[in-house]
């Protein structure tokens, strides 16, 4: 399929008027065609108007219609074939198996949400039947369901050109909830975005839905992104990216005449606690697993293990030796964009130049453009606790800081000082159980996901997943951006009191025609 | 019980240092003793520190322990006896049956939350069992439960000295979720607040809970209230009151180093649509019901019907005649505070002085202090649509504006122009069903609760209730402040990946020892 470099507004492909953006192949430095001429306020308004006019129709499509739509999007993405993989590889520098895996994840996610829409848990149907004889006052018939919030603005990051981008988790969960979506494409992968956007356009048409259900905008974050979040027809925002980007959108959203929720997944250093008995018994194996997780995908994951916390001593020294060896052997990898590479270099230089931090090892240096050298550093808990910037340093890439603690008490204090995180990991043996128990309350307050004897990279798309966590990991700790519960971000409850049967939504009618789980008088009916 | 005029910080009663506040009996103008000397930043910090130190223990109390605590609070409130009713009547000017009813509602609400805690729906337990043989990658064991957000700051309004105050819905749902509570008492009913606060203190002690689970502060909103919301140990805010008060707290909460959710229930004019066939067939009866709802409790409800929308014509004229007669006969009533009375007078004067608004009727004038005269006014849809201030005018009290529409189209435009509302009401007959259907999508986007052939005053405390709605009715349309779903405001999900059985929380252990409803591999098990 020939790329056109145009904005997709409903079923149209439209030329912008602002500055053109070209993708750059980070592995070669080569500029990729075509140029994507950015849109402006005009195009934002058009996309939002279409989304708004589609909203009432789309949100009342049946679960089956919406599920088929999500499945059709997945099929249309698969139908693009190898063009998608090759363009995504060229725009991201990521290898083929990773891009093929990510395509599988993206389509699997869309199909999971199709099953979620059909199952109907998201409706949260509640029925409190009338009690006409209750004293002193009768109770009227009361029923509740969830409805869609409204059109959603989606902003993806550079590091998942498919799974967190145009048809990624935010889009899939918004569409599943009944919300039209306007995506602001990431400037790092415009061609991948266009290919997936056209697949979405086709699915909208094939399913006979109003065209405003999906639009794709290109342009500057400061102009197009800000105008999109400020538009009164947008009712929620999904964002994955940097802390500064996320907080900028939060400010715009809060200053609207009608403030709206922003679901921003921003920054996390994902502490890993090496508990003493596990470290003693199998420090080598832990070091191997750690460096595998650290260097996977050039460390460009929001769940990358950027902080390791352990007791000082011979076991930790042995771990550092083993991990240092593995880091030294780790090959250079191409990073996603020149900007990402530059920020990584700065972050590593910060550790390298810090008085309280010692370099343990660096990975192999590369010869190509935008290649990163992994980095492993160590500091003491005293230094870590004494310097706020060390606690808040997220180096996006394959770089990690080990914090050596002189006592249990110091280790607890390090844990307590952490900001909100996506994940917290325990490497532990049975003999560490008491210590793990004493850490758990702190970790529960700090993180959205707690792991034992695994690694935080690799986020399963399932019903129990929480890819979220207290601020600044995300803007809203009550939610997840991965897994089926992500749909609840885009819904709100409505109560219907004594409505005639003919006016009740299908989900609430007598006899439960949709066959969904309901809470009747407070009792769960599966 | 002798009132002491002190702040309750944990189990202590403490004297403040700031300006003293005395309640005023609005019916007599009399100053009520004792004086409540306000606290300052010092007392806020003490209460927050205690709440924080209680948090990890309290949030892990078993459902049974927490349920018994809620039931004990209810019993302790009942044990205060008539002193509570008399003080609440003196501080609010509300009549005895209303205060007795409100006490019943308050204790019933606490007992409802006890049953909710035991039932365990709030845990939202999800289990995705390990799939060790899955290709290409095995799935690890993943489980999810909800945990409490942290200490909650609660601010009540003047109009429900019991049900939305110290032990009201926000406190009950926070405590049910496992969150300690710090209440900032409303200055209109400090004595009622102290009585209920002491009942809570006793319940904390009787149940052997850490004292920081509950504190009660008196003082100025600008100092004590602002310091409370800004305190880093507070993790959420429950507020019921004015739009200016709610948005001020939202701004403080958003500007913290760690922003936190504010659940502010603020302003609503609760539109009532009189559909043509119902209006023709039974305009008199509708007028009677309407004026009953309008004037109940001097109209001092956030669900008071402040806006009536109908087609112009003889049916509406007849309705206005009948409603006007009923308003004229409605006796004067004492309002809650001098400030409420003054704001009401200003609101009515605004309608009376507006060129596009005609007075239909005023109620009887009173002879005592702070007495209000009900008011009914009428305008045209053209005037209403032409003047933003008319659309946004919330007159807190027994005053309502009727909007006469020249066409269906105009009526739809009036509906579409409304801000977010707690409720929207349809007076309709079977022959109005098509028109109701065409209005429903708009009403669903505007309101948290939609009623047919009832009146919005009277909010059932049950599982389906939504006392919420789009901004500015509330700050967060995804939630309710009344009913069992209010508990979800104070919870967040945590995912546990491959944790050893010995480390898993009770709710997630194999065999489901708490016997709660679970979503296993996406399938509901009741």
From TrEMBL, chains A, B:
It comes from Halomonas lysinitropha. Residues 16-461 form the Aldehyde dehydrogenase domain. Keywords: Oxidoreductase. Its EC number is 1.2.1.26. Belongs to the aldehyde dehydrogenase family. It comes from the Bacteria. Transmembrane segments: none annotated. GO terms for molecular function: 2,5-dioxovalerate dehydrogenase (NADP+) activity. CDD domains: ALDH_KGSADH (cd07129). InterPro entries: Ald_DH/histidinol_DH, Ald_DH_C, Ald_DH_N, Aldehyde_DH_dom, Aldehyde_DH_Superfamily, ALDH_KGSADH. This is 2,5-dioxovalerate dehydrogenase. It catalyses: 2,5-dioxopentanoate + NADP(+) + H2O = 2-oxoglutarate + NADPH + 2 H(+); 2,5-dioxopentanoate + NAD(+) + H2O = 2-oxoglutarate + NADH + 2 H(+).
